[in-house]
Amino acid sequence: MERLDKFLCDCGVGTRSQVKAIIKSGAVAVDGVTERDSSRKFDPATQTVTLNAEPLNRRGRVVVMLNKPAGFVTATQDKTDRTVMELLPEQYRHLDLKPVGRLDKATEGLLLFTNDGDLLHRLISPKKEVPKCYYARHEGTATQEDVAAFAEGLTLGDGTKCMPALLKPIGPGESYVTVCEGKYHQVRRMLASRNMPVTYLERQQEGELTLNGLPRGSVRELTEAEVSALLDVGKMTKGTN
Ligand code: URA
Q1: In the chain, where are the structural domains located?
Q2: Is 64 within 8 Å of 223 (Cβ atoms)?
Q3: Is 104 in the pocket of ligand 1 (CB under 6 A)?
Q4: The model's pTM
């Protein structure tokens, strides 16, 4: 048996207090009978709950992709900065979505959110080796020595050891960097350690998933097939782009 207000929250209808007000207004029915008591328990397996006569279904696993603009911090709340949560459309605000890893405030591009804790940990675990590909503009120009140093596994100034990574020079001051882990400011610190401080950074790809034309600041939900493909990604064997 389950409380009506909790069920409505899980369905993404609203926050606990919003949901209580909606139930009180008489918009919710259990098996066709209006129910105004939020604490009322019902059996989700056998009973049907409706909102304005439309049946409600609990959202299962939800994975959403955002094309993050610069200027937003990856946090669920922050005292001074705007957060990526503010970029989620209303229908995703009450699903308890959490960012999968983090992008710096200045970094743009692909950021996933999910309400599935297991999936979240699998996607950010360096052991699973889901490659993340970044486009970087930086000072200087990457050389074959830099490519070799990335492939070897860099040691940063503070002694932090990085896993082998792929550096793919594009031209003067432009490179792709593919990493399988997400240490603090990792790509910026890796390039800086080779005297190529980053001036612009965009995450373009995670596993096989790309932004594929999603406009900056926009969001789209992933299909189950896209989520499975992400989880199937094996070791990083080749570059992207
Ligand atoms: N590496 C960084 O330095 N910054 C990011 O936002 C992501 C990866």
Answers
A1: 2-55, 63-231
A2: no
A3: yes
A4: 0.83
Q: pLDDT tens digit string along 162-200?
A: 999 999 999 999 999 999 999 999 999 999 999 999 999
Residue 117 host element (H or E): helix 117-124
80: left (phi over 0), alpha (psi -120 to 50) or beta: alpha
Q: Which residues of the chain have pLDDT under 50?
A: 235-241
Expressed in angstroms and rounded, the spacing between residue 182 Cα and the centre of ligand 1 is: 8
E strands along 31-152, which residues? 33-34, 41-42, 49-51, 54-55, 63-68, 98-99, 108-114, 132-138
Q: Is the CB of 177 under 6 A from ligand 1?
A: no
Architecture of the domain whose range is 2-55: Roll (3.10)
Ligand 1 atom 2 nearest Cα:
185
Decide whether any atom of ligand 1 lies within 6 Å of the 103 Cβ: yes
* CATH number of the 63-231 domain: 3.30.2350.10
